[in-house]
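Chain A, query sequence.
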Amino acid sequence: MKKKVHLKGQLKGYTQWLLLLSVLLLAMNACMYSMSIKAGILVSAFLAVYLLIVILLYLRSRTQIYNELISFATQYGQIQKKLLKELALPYALLDAQGRVLWGNTAFFEVSGRSKKGLRKPINWFFPEFSKEELLTEEGEDKKTVRFSTEERDFRVDIRRVYMEHMMEDNALVDIDEDDGYLVALYMFDETEINMYIRMNKEERLVAGLLYLDNYEEALDTVEEVRRSLLVALVDRKINKYIGAFGGIVKKMEKDKYFIAIQEKHLPVMRENKYELLQDVKTVNIGNEMAVTLSMGLGLSGATFAENYDYARIAIDLALARGGDQVVIKEGESITYFGGKTQQVEKATRVKARVKAHALREFIESRDKVMVMGHKMGDMDSFGASIGIYRAAKVLGKRAYIVINDITNSVRPLRESFHDNPVYETDMFLRGEEALNLIDRNTVLVVVDTNRPNYTECSELLGRTPTIVVLDHHRQTNEQIENAVLSYIEPYASSACEMVAEILQYFDEGLKIKTTEADCLYAGIVLDTDNFMRRTGVRTFEAAAFLRRCGADVTRVRKMFRNEMVEYKARAEAVRHAEVYHGFAISICPNENIESPTIVGAQAADELLNIVGVRASIVLTYYQHRTYVSARSIDEVNVQILTERLGGGGHMNMAGAQLDCGVEEAMEIVKHTIEKMQEEGEFE
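Chain A, predicted structure.
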């Protein structure tokens, strides 16, 4: 549409002042008529000629003035265009469709294209830059994007330029309103500054701590005269590995090292899968047990001291997860690598004794004790809670067990306390009832889980400063904060085994009742699959202690019997299992089953009896989410698989929860297995 151009401002006044002065002449003409009619007629004739001449001059000069203005604007625009054209900053104007209308010399040099490309889309000049990244949303007038081309990094500032805004500061002419716009691109070359940022990041020092997991145990398996040689060979492996990356190693203790390397070497170490973990296991001079180590690395802290603090947190997490792995703490992010070796059971019980005495001190200093396990509690969680309950009662403290849902597996244990005059009627509380009773003078003991969201009532964690955590699962990024006592031992078969050990050191006169011993024994039997998995010397010692306290194998076995509908559901899950990359995967039916997740876990155990199955995974849909039960014998670490799914557990027994349907969960599990298979995680 053709626009009308109008003069405005002072220039408009200059062209019209002669016409305005005619008003004075008209007033003078009126005065002349009052003095003399002849004089008035004469002046009127003169005024008519004057007005005619002024009008003709106005019409003629306006065209000349417009031509002069256009000529001036053209010359002025040429100067601006030349300045923009020679500007070192790449600059271009685009239309609303992303086509380049104009660009300066620097723009064409950077793009490597000629001016013949005008009217072509922006991605013709820069294939890495999509026109979808332009201002496409309504009301979006500016935007900044970054892209790289030919090893050069650019920051592009995008501005929408409206035609009406271009005329706002114009004092000479006025153009009718127009809602059209152009898009201006300003390109800033950030290649050099990004290079310096990258160099600065790569050269930052990473603090690390390296601990030998089984130093004493490995030395005990070799002749005394050769022990110094074993230590020397391990030292050499560590120094050679870190030295190859230009790092430094400082031995702090006989089995602890401090290391420092540059951050740029971490990708190479990660790509090589931290080969030191496997390399140190090859040291063999007759030792029956291979040496394993754990490494904690800290980076991205504000200071090197903060990186060291990160490294200490990382190494503690690595050891708590069983050792033989690398844990990297980068700010708030934590990454795990390794952890595929079964941790060797510690022969010494010193740690259990120390933790038992510490727990006793905390309970003695408080008025009440509350114990809670994880949601959908099983026999291990329930049995461990009963053990802590007995410890509190020995010290004469009021004790409660927090449990919301009584699952089918726990019900036989729970009924043994029902209507029993030896126990208080309010021994068991629901979460909302516990919230009304807990205060700052209460000890809260969490058993069989170290993740706040998995507890029966996570709100209780914020109601008391005295929190104790007893668990045998590997730690993850999500853990209970501010625990005054944390006893987490991944080597333990079950939480009941840990509690049984604590009870032996808790009080010399402590006596466990028969019913309580049955609960603890049942928890061990459940988590060890009747002493077939994750059992060590201390597992049988704990079981022997419970047997001496009156635990009856026959009574416990009866507790593990299933209803017919549950047995059929387990058989159905086994019948429909499919083998995917060595994993037996199936879906457990949940119709008319009170505790389908437990049946799913039992089905996963059954699938391991099939030849050729490296691991088993059973999915169960329950309460609007899908529960994943993963099991293995020794070929696959299912714990690292479930961690990818947001869960955790042990190397051969783990689980996770997915907030989706069972079919979608099946696809997620298969995709995760395939991805980890490609990454070599199951080798």
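The longest helix spans residues 37-85. The chain has a mean pLDDT of 83.
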